[in-house]
């Protein structure tokens, strides 16, 4: 542990100086992180949902070094490169048929910003200049930039800090909190009253991640999409957390037959190696938008695109469905019984996602130290203790995680 780090470096969602010491990672290999205190811990977080194949993977290492020998970066304005072309081809192929245009960005939040811009420019160019608001379900999370933040849950999110600056959008009941029927009625009422001013609905399909780790009935997507079409509101799915197998389908929207107008991808896109995100849309939307007024400096970074290609191919050529089913089964047998523990409020499981919601807030520092003693890295927040392991984790390694969760509970 480094005192310079604690004194001088701002870590996510913490104070500087940081009251809690960060654990220093010396190297990472497979599903293990090697810490500077000599401990080797299993990463049950996949580095925030992204390292789906684990660390230091030979196939991904090769892809990135081969690209590095050619060039690490070139601007994307007026130039292009094979890794971006190959990646766009795969993304168009594996996502719904209507999605044929790919806009690369450098982070998930910016992919969301681009999606929101696309929706606004679409209606602007269609002459519907009042359609400048968004609608979303509560308990969502879409990133930390201003546009993204404005559609995060208004209570969990950072709205109270920035309420004077954040645009006000429409929040409706989440099917992860109330019944699907009740959520749909709430959506329809809001659309009926306000659709003249609403450009798009944005939501995370099936699993709401950082906004509370909640799961809902995929049928809601189909029905919400129909309502949005009826009220002339575009439908944006944020698959940044759920994409690339995590929920048991390649994309969570694949649980139903749902074609979003705009789709955001990120996190596991590069197998957790580099920062990269993408926003996909249809011919219909892109032709009405025309010139998209966005262009990050490191857009479509070649190293990131090369490793994303390798990661997606590695995933598609692996028995990922069997792996996710195996992990889900493990969570059902090891985590679900914790529902009977009086300190546990709820247990939620889908695919390679296992969530234990406690009755009381978790003491993060104490819990994390205990988890590390038990050979596991997790990052609890609020009342939530959860794991989203790399897909190639063995049953023994999974057991180490679920046993550590039981110990700290
Ligand atoms: C993480 C996340 C984002 C933001 O991605 P960053 O790369 O952290 O900017 C947006 N939406 C969802 C659903 C996410 O989980």
TrEMBL record:
Tell me which residues bear N6-(pyridoxal phosphate)lysine.
Answer: 267
Quote the pathway field.
Cofactor biosynthesis; biotin biosynthesis; 7,8-diaminononanoate from 8-amino-7-oxononanoate (SAM route): step 1/1
Task: List the catalysed reactions.
Answer: (8S)-8-amino-7-oxononanoate + S-adenosyl-L-methionine = S-adenosyl-4-methylsulfanyl-2-oxobutanoate + (7R,8S)-7,8-diammoniononanoate
- Compartments (UniProt record): Cytoplasm
Where it mainly occurs, coarsely classed, is cytoplasm
What residues bind substrate, as annotated?
Answer: 48, 141, 267, 295, 379
- Please tell me where pyridoxal 5'-phosphate binds in this chain: 108-109, 238, 296-297
Q: Does S-adenosyl-L-methionine show up as a keyword for this record?
A: yes
Q: Which GO terms describe its cellular component?
A: cytoplasm
Q: Where is this site: Participates in the substrate recognition with KAPA and in a stacking interaction with the adenine ring of SAM?
A: 13
List the Gene3D superfamilies hit by this protein, alphabetically.
Aspartate Aminotransferase, domain 1, Type I PLP-dependent aspartate aminotransferase-like (Major domain)
Q: Which residues form a coiled coil?
A: none
GO BP terms, alphabetized: biotin biosynthetic process
GO molecular function terms attached to this record: adenosylmethionine-8-amino-7-oxononanoate transaminase activity; pyridoxal phosphate binding
Q: Which cofactor is recorded for it? A: pyridoxal 5'-phosphate
EC number of this enzyme: 2.6.1.62
Q: Which HAMAP family match?
A: BioA
* Role played: Catalyzes the transfer of the alpha-amino group from S-adenosyl-L-methionine (SAM) to 7-keto-8-aminopelargonic acid (KAPA) to form 7,8-diaminopelargonic acid (DAPA). It is the only aminotransferase known to utilize SAM as an amino donor.
Cross-referenced PANTHER family: ADENOSYLMETHIONINE-8-AMINO-7-OXONONANOATE AMINOTRANSFERASE (PTHR42684:SF17)
Q: Which family does it belong to?
A: Belongs to the class-III pyridoxal-phosphate-dependent aminotransferase family. BioA subfamily.
Description of how the protein assembles with itself and partners = Homodimer.
Question: What protein does this entry describe?
Answer: Adenosylmethionine-8-amino-7-oxononanoate aminotransferase
Quote the gene name from the UniProt entry.
bioA
């Amino acid at each position: 542990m480094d005192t310079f780090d604690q004194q001088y470096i701002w870590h996510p969602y913490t104070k500087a100086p940081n009251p809690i010491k960060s654990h220093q990672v010396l190297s990472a290999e497979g599903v293990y992180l090697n810490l500077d205190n000599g401990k080797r811990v299993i990463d049950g977080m996949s580095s925030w949902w992204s390292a789906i194949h684990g660390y230091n993977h030979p196939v991904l290492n090769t892809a990135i070094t081969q690209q590095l020998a050619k060039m690490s970066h070139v601007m994307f304005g007026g130039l292009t490169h094979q890794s971006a072309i190959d990646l766009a081809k795969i993304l168009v192929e594996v996502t719904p048929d209507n999605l044929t245009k790919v806009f690369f960005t450098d982070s998930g939040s910016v992919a969301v910003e681009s999606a929101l811009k696309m929706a606004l420019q679409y209606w602007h160019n269609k002459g519907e200049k009042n359609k400048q608001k968004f609608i979303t379900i509560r308990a969502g999370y879409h990133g930390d930039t201003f546009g993204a933040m404005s559609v995060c849950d208004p209570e969990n999110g950072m709205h109270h800090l920035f309420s004077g600056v954040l645009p006000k959008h429409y929040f409706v009941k989440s099917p992860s909190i109330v019944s699907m029927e009740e959520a749909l009625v709430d959506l329809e009422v809001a659309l009926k009253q306000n659709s003249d001013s609403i450009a798009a609905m944005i939501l995370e399909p099936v699993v709401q991640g950082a906004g509370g780790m909640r799961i809902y009935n995929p049928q809601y997507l189909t029905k919400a999409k129909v309502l949005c079409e009826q009220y002339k509101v575009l439908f944006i799915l944020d698959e940044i957390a759920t994409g690339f197998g995590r929920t048991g389908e390649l994309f969570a929207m694949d649980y139903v037959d749902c074609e979003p107008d705009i789709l955001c991808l990120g996190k596991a896109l590069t197998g957790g190696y580099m920062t990269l995100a993408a926003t996909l849309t249809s011919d219909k939307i892109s032709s009405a938008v025309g010139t998209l007024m966005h262009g990050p400096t490191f857009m479509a970074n070649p190293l990131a695109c090369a490793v994303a290609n390798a990661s997606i191919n590695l995933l598609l050529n692996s028995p990922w469905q069997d792996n996710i089913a195996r992990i889900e089964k493990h969570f059902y047998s090891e985590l679900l019984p914790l529902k009977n523990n009086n300190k546990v409020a709820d247990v939620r499981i889908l695919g390679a996602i296992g969530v234990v919601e406690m009755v009381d807030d978790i003491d993060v520092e104490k819990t994390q130290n205990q988890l590390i003693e038990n050979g596991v890295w997790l990052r609890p927040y609020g009342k939530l203790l959860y794991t989203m392991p790399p897909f190639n984790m063995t049953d023994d390694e999974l057991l180490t995680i679920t046993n550590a969760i039981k110990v700290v509970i």
